[in-house]
Amino acid sequence: MRNKEPFTLNDLFKADHIYSLVTSLVLLGFSLIAYHFANEYAFDYLTRSTTTYVGDVLLDNLPVVNLNFIIIETALITMLVAVIFLIFFRARYILFSFKALAVFNITRALFISLTHIGVYPGQITPGAGLLDGIYSYFNFQTGFFFSAHTGLPFLFALIFWKEKKLRYILLSLSFIFAVGVLFAHVHYSIDVLAAPFMAYGIFKIAEYLFPHDFEFIGTKHVQ
Asked: Taking a C-beta distance cutoff of 8 angstroms, is the pair 48, 118 a contact?
């Protein structure tokens, strides 16, 4: 059943939704903890002398370009705008979005904990600015597989699939971030190319695990 707006953040604190809201926040918090330790584990491997980079036919032929303004500033600002947008304009989507994000974080934490390869030569590193510091603190540049820059916008494009403008904006961001991390040599090409497929799988898992939250937003199934 498809629900209609208006629906505000205050409605999430009512008896019908408070349990799901608490669950989503707990899952998201747990996923961020798992994500943090997975990145720390990956960083430890990166500093070992036995960890080496591997060849990549795409990166081998791409020039190294400093696109930190896309990878760091644009990415972090986009995340902030997305949170504000959800709270004030699409509160109905918060429950499913937070749970889908939790599944995304947990899945990526698992993957970046499994296989460890070295930094590709010439990788652009964060600068010394405030946003660069935030980016470095959360170790967003540590884990390789799969690309969160590419996968997260794609995941939310699937969540907002029925809203055409938002879908195209999010798919465009996914493409822009994909190009950015490749030219900056922040990710291997397999990390970027696999991200949409991983995001789609995560979306379907979240849809299966949280059917009531998915039905609540009235999103049509993505086939």
From this structure: no
Residue 177 exposed, middle or buried by CB count within 10 Å (0-12, 13-18, 19+): buried
Would you say 178 and 192 are in contact if contact means Cβ atoms under 8 Å apart?
yes
Rounded to an integer, the average pLDDT of 101-127 is 88
Put simply, whether the predicted model's pTM sits higher than 0.70 gets the answer: yes
Dihedral pair phi/psi, residue 7, rounded to 5°:
-145, 125
Residues 6+ apart with CB under 8 A from 105: 28, 31, 32, 34, 35
The CA distance from 94 to 24, in Å, is 9
Q: What percent of the chain has pLDDT over 70?
A: 93
Give the pLDDT confidence score for residue 221 in this predicted structure.
46
- Of the candidates 155, 167, 172, the residue with the CA atom closest to the CA atom of residue 74: 172
Enter the tokens of residue 71.
């990878």
Residue 36: Cβ-neighbour burial (10 angstroms; 0-12, 13-18, 19+): middle
pLDDT per position as a tens digit, 148-188: 999 999 999 999 999 999 999 999 999 999 999 999 999 99
Q: Do 116 and 58 contact (CB within 8 A), yes or no?
A: no
Mean pLDDT within 113-131 = 81
> Rounded to whole angstroms, what are the CA distances from 168 to 45, 153, 154, 174?
37, 10, 10, 10
